Amino acid sequence: MSEKIPLLIDTDPGVDDALALLMAFNSDAHEVVGLTIAAGNVGLAHTVRNALKLREVAGCGHVPVFAGCGGPLVHAPREDAAHVHGRDGFGDVGYPDPSGRAEAEHAALAILRLSHEHAGRLLLVALGPLTNLALALRLDPTLPQRVARLVVMGGAVTAHGNITPVAEFNVGFDPEAAHVVLSGFPKYDLADWEATLAHGFHHREVEKWLAAPSPRAAFYDAISRQTRLWSEDRRGQYWHSADSLAMAWALEPDGAVEMAERPLAVETGFGLARGLTAVDWNRQTGAADNARILLRYDQARFEARVQAALAAA
Ligand code: BDR
Ligand code: CA
Q1: Which of 144, 242, 304, 306 is 20 to 30 A from 255 in CA distance terms?
Q2: Which residues have a Cβ under 8 Å from the Cβ of 214 and sit 6 or more positions away?
Q3: Cβ-based neighbour number of residue 3 at 10 Å
Q4: Ion ligand 2 contact residues with beta carbon within 5 A
Q5: Residues 36 and 8 sit within 8 Å (Cβ to Cβ)
Q6: Residue nearest to atom 2 of ligand 1 (CA)
Q7: For residue 236, what is the domain's CATH number?
């Protein structure tokens, strides 16, 4: 058996997902055992195609890609994130078709199978709406027993949302799925949108990283250009890459400087608070501390890992 930590990534690529995937592929300590794909940032046909392209750019064509759910579990989403990531999710640069195709197995079934194959060792990282994971969990509620660690990018832990006033995109896109997963796993690590905002990259630094003489940097420079321009215009001098922060913490847990464990529940009602991740900061409910929330991560380690992933040959 490989000494490397088996890493399964559920994702909806997406520009920040792409950076997170490059970081994962570049980790010597981890073996990416699959990419399970959800709809989210854009539709499933695009997110699957983007995943296939990204694995090719990273020289990891052997990593299987599994297409999953084409939309939320129950209710249609309010909107996707094409205005941020481009209509195709990768900046509309018109990249050539990837070689290879997705496996026939559905993402939810692949999650369950891989959880058996790597029982007790699997690192599961969720970077998109939690639809595939929720389906897997409904099919087999014992899934958490075989997952060594679940890291989720999602939520806004003091209700400063990015898709509604209170909801973060991944949770807001499919609140029912988020409820199933975040109540079905007794413990998980959560890197939320507010942590993302506290760990921006200076745009001028990013431009230097993207000038690295590597195909990965060149590809990433191209697909991220539109979203970086949008971000600088909207949010100022720092660029925020949610999924790459979650991935940094997943790959290098020692980099966490401050965390908090609290009970967390997802609001699935249809009022203003739909998609809210309600954190019981004062432990008033008596519920168990299910969420370990990332508050601060070592910025230098984070940036070094991103730079290394971009520069990798
Ligand atoms: C999350 O939403 C998506 O747009 C990003 O890829 C990230 O996973 C941030 O709210
Ligand atoms: Ca994502």
Answers
A1: 144
A2: 310, 311, 312, 313
A3: 6
A4: 12, 14, 17, 127-128, 243
A5: yes
A6: 169
A7: 3.90.245.10
Stated as kind and residue range, the H or E segment containing 34 is: strand 30-37
243 is catalytic: no
> What digits encode the pLDDT tens for the residues 84-105?
888 999 999 999 999 999 999 9
Whether pTM > 0.70 for this model: the answer is yes
Residues 7-19: pLDDT tens digits?
999 999 999 999 9
For 125, the domain range is 5-311
Residues linked to residue 258 through DSSP beta bridges, in sequence order: 296
Instruction: Give the pocket of ligand 1 (CB within 6 Å).
Output: 14, 16-17, 41, 81, 84, 127-128, 153, 162, 168-170, 193, 242-243
Locus of tokens 């992933």: 309
| Ligand 1, atom nearest to 168 Cα | 10
CA distance 64 to 133: 17
